[in-house]
Amino acid sequence: MPLQIGNLTIDSPVILAPMSGVTDYPFRSIVKKLGASLLVSEMIASRAMIMQTRQSLQKAKVDALTAVQLAGCEPDVMAEAAKLNEDMGAKIIDINFGCPVKKL
């Protein structure tokens, strides 16, 4: 049975969870080939995203149905980062509210 998130239909129940330092673009590509229908990026610091650092752009690289996970503490910066990711093709913006990783 498909999963409906807003106007998006997720056909497969296999969803790649966001894992900092793990779910990079090459890993997401492999998981997609193995049947995942929703891919979630690793966590991206919102400020780094709006500065468009090489590392943040690589993390945000979108292919097919991708959700991007953003972290941050400044609402205006997070909003700008969300809009940038949407413009780059992200279908879902996932806001991380409680990651235990100390360094963001």
Automatic annotation (TrEMBL):
It catalyses: a 5,6-dihydrouridine in mRNA + NAD(+) = a uridine in mRNA + NADH + H(+); 5,6-dihydrouridine(47) in tRNA + NAD(+) = uridine(47) in tRNA + NADH + H(+); 5,6-dihydrouridine(47) in tRNA + NADP(+) = uridine(47) in tRNA + NADPH + H(+); a 5,6-dihydrouridine in mRNA + NADP(+) = a uridine in mRNA + NADPH + H(+). Residues 15-103 form the DUS-like FMN-binding domain. CDD domains: DUS_like_FMN. InterPro entries: Aldolase_TIM (IPR013785), DUS-like_FMN-bd (IPR035587). Its EC number is 1.3.1.89. It holds the Pfam family Dus. One of its GO terms (molecular function) is tRNA-dihydrouridine47 synthase activity. PANTHER family: TRNA-DIHYDROURIDINE(47) SYNTHASE [NAD(P)(+)]-LIKE. Belongs to the Dus family. Dus3 subfamily. This is tRNA-dihydrouridine(47) synthase [NAD(P)(+)]. It comes from Trichonephila clavata (Joro spider).
